[in-house]
Design goal:
With 359 residues, the protein is an alpha+beta fold. A hairpin with a 5-residue loop joins strand 1 and strand 2. Helix 2 packs parallel to helix 4 and helix 3 crosses helix 4. The two termini are 40 Å apart. It binds adenosine-5'-diphosphate.
């Protein structure tokens, strides 16, 4: 069992920089939580406070109901995997994995069993006598994970573990972490700036910006119903398109274009009559056919889809990116006719999502 509860946690560094504001989450046993956000948003600080590597300025941290806010890192029963692996170069892979147990003076037979079991899980059995320098980046990252597994900690903490790997290895190692999570059913906190990692790995995502939690939810919740403009723009690749529009006469009127609305959409916007709002449309929710003119300036074929960039509006006032189905061959200057399959609406002042009956 490992339930983690972060309650009203703030971090104010000595130089008076507040890096984290009122962070709250109850992490369930066996859950994989991904903290995601741009560089400097406070993800690592949060993880390091959980690990006990940074003091918690305000608030409380509980592990299985026990207050561990003041507990030293070494007594928290957590293991952290860093992006730079931090392996000992002069030791073999076996010795690296056994190190923390050797330090704890565990029975060598027990150590041997644990190291072999972890090596088996991670596919490192044939590498145990090698030195870290003889291994690939991906294998070294697995050794770093193996070192955590042998300790059988209550909570695994990952700080950007894949960022030193090339794109192909990142994908493969990501799948390994997912398998590892399933196999160990362990509670995990995982920090990344990469929204793809968050979407593919997380049971729940915590999306942060400038020290504030913007939304906590399943990957689908964040993708499908983002709380605000920030989450909408951060989750999803290529990012959501945004347009300034006014809700008028049951339509959205933008700069040089108009979009008609369904009855349901009009109902959602009923409190915003004649007001300016932000319209958000994901590139994959734009389809060929319709009344919107796009003047294309680039056509990138990806195989299954084509990424088309252009300008929309009578005078090309709006930048737009569309991920169209199949193979299209627009040339620079061609006109594409499109429509929006799905729309998101945001309040101009608060930047919050406009949802039915929520104002
Ligand atoms: P992230 O992991 O999301 O990139 P961090 O948690 O590392 O962000 O940093 C959050 C903010 O706290 C940043 O503004 C950073 O400059 C600041 N910060 C991080 N570490 C320290 C420190 N030791 N002293 C002062 N400010 C820090």
């Amino acid at each position: 069992m490992a339930e983690l509860s972060l309650q009203h946690i703030d971090k104010i560094y000595d130089n008076n920089v507040q890096a984290v504001f009122d962070f709250n989450i109850d992490v369930k046993d066996g859950e994989l939580i991904v903290l995601v956000g741009p560089s400097g948003c406070g993800k690592s600080t949060t993880l390091r406070m959980v690990a006990g590597l940074e003091d918690i300025s305000n608030g409380k941290l509980f592990l299985d109901g026990r207050d561990i806010t003041q507990t030293p890192a070494k007594d928290r029963d957590m293991a952290m995997v860093f992006q730079n692996y931090a392996l000992y170069g002069h030791m073999t892979i076996y010795e690296n994995m056994a190190f923390s147990l050797t330090l704890r003076k565990e029975d060598p037979n027990v150590i041997h069993k644990k190291v072999l079991a972890a090596a088996e899980i991670l596919g490192l059995t044939s590498q145990l006598n090698k030195k870290p320098s003889q291994l690939s980046g991906g294998q070294r990252q697995r050794v770093a994970m193996g070192r955590s597994i042998v300790r059988n900690p209550k909570v695994f903490l990952f700080d950007e573990p894949l960022s030193n790997l090339d794109a192909k290895l990142r994908g493969a190692t990501r799948r390994e972490i997912l398998l590892l999570h399933k196999r160990l059913s362990a509670t995990m906190l995982y920090v990344t700036h990469d929204q793809t990692e968050a979407l593919t790995l997380a049971d729940r995502i915590v999306c942060m910006s400038m020290g504030h939690v913007q939304q906590i939810g399943t990957p689908l919740e964040l993708y499908d119903s983002p709380n605000n403009l920030f989450v909408a723009g951060f989750i999803g690749l290529p990012p959501m398109n945004f347009f300034d529009v006014t809700f008028e006469d049951g339509k959205l009127k933008g700069k040089g274009f108009e979009v008609s609305l369904s009855d349901e959409e009009k109902y959602t916007l009923s409190d915003y009559n004649r007001q300016e709002i932000t319209l958000g449309v994901r590139p994959e929710d734009i389809v060929e056919g319709g009344t919107l003119h796009v003047k294309v300036f680039s056509n990138e074929n990806l195989g299954m889809n084509t990424l088309v960039h252009g300008h929309m509006g009578a005078n090309g006032e709006n930048r737009i990116s569309a991920k169209l189905r199949g193979w299209t061959d627009y040339k620079n200057g061609d006109e594409a006719m499109v429509s929006f399959k799905r729309k998101h609406f945001f309040d101009k002042q608060t930047t919050n999502s406009i949802r039915k009956g929520e104002r």
